[in-house]
Design goal:
Blueprint (H helix, E strand, L loop, with lengths): L3 H14 L13 E17 L4 E3 L15 E10 L4 E7 L1 H14 L4 E8 L8 E9 L2 H9 L11 H4 L13 H12 L3 H10 L13 H18 L6
Antiparallel strand pairs: 1-2, 1-3, 1-5, 3-4, 5-6
The structure holds zinc ion.
Zinc ion binds next to loops.
């Protein structure tokens, strides 16, 4: 029996979520599984029919009787399937549901599945948030190593489509940090501690961007002896 339908569906789900920092659930049934991280960032916006424009408050040209701004809330959202910190954004009803699952389950203890209910462009679209599974130590370590996006300065989902991931000033690119973490994980804990001490940081994501080349070299030097040990001297 062909599993073409399942393959196509899982590919469609990956495509719905891939690319850019912002999670996009564009079609009915699109879903993503991940962990909410950090603090929410709320802003008031107007929907122009094409995009969200930030309400400037006093003197806002888009504010009019019966046209009050609506709330959009952003949160960092770690997606294990992509090993990447993303940003998820939603409206008032969605955020109220986030608060509900936070109170009931705890955002740091669970992965949640967010699913879209409503076709593209349907103004009645809603999103469900369900607990998927509990996070384990390994996953919590991955999340801790992934840098949070600076939500106040990230722009918004409409603007950033192709923009590269922003990192905090001077800090190492989150993608690079993730790569280094993956390499360090293969090493004994003592080597990891040596590495962190060498660069005077507590977490990999605290490395300076300017130290990237040095850090890569250092990790390579730590992994080198392991490669040698795989060579059978009696071969
Ligand atoms: Zn306004």
């Amino acid at each position: 029996m062909s599993n073409a339908w399942e393959t196509a569906q899982s590919l469609a789900e990956q495509h719905a979520n891939s690319g850019g920092i912002f999670i996009r659930l564009s079609n009915n049934g699109d879903k993503v599984v991940g962990a909410f991280c950090g603090e929410p960032h709320a802003r008031e916006v107007h929907w122009t029919g094409e995009k969200y424009v930030e309400c400037t408050g006093d003197g806002c040209k888009l504010c009019a009787p019966g046209k009050r701004p609506s709330l959009r809330v952003m949160l960092n959202f770690y997606v294990p399937a992509e090993s990447e910190m993303k940003v998820i954004e939603g409206g008032t009803a969605w955020f109220k549901d986030v608060i509900k699952v936070r109170d009931k389950y705890g955002l740091d203890k669970w992965l949640f599945e967010i699913e879209r209910h409503g076709d593209s462009g349907d103004p009645k679209t809603t999103y469900s948030i369900l607990p998927e599974e509990k996070t384990d130590d390994e996953l919590r370590a991955d999340i801790a190593a992934a840098a949070l996006h600076d939500l106040a300065n990230i722009g918004n989902g409409e603007e950033e489509e192709k923009a590269p991931a922003k990192s905090r000033a001077g800090s190492i690119n989150p993608r690079v940090a993730g790569e280094l973490v993956a390499q360090l994980k293969a090493l004994p804990r003592s080597d990891v501690d040596t590495f962190l001490a060498e660069f005077k940081v507590e977490r990999v994501r605290d490395l300076q961007a300017s130290d990237e080349a040095k850090a890569r070299k250092y990790i390579a030097s730590l992994t080198a002896p392991q490669d040698d040990s795989e060579i059978d001297p009696f071969a």
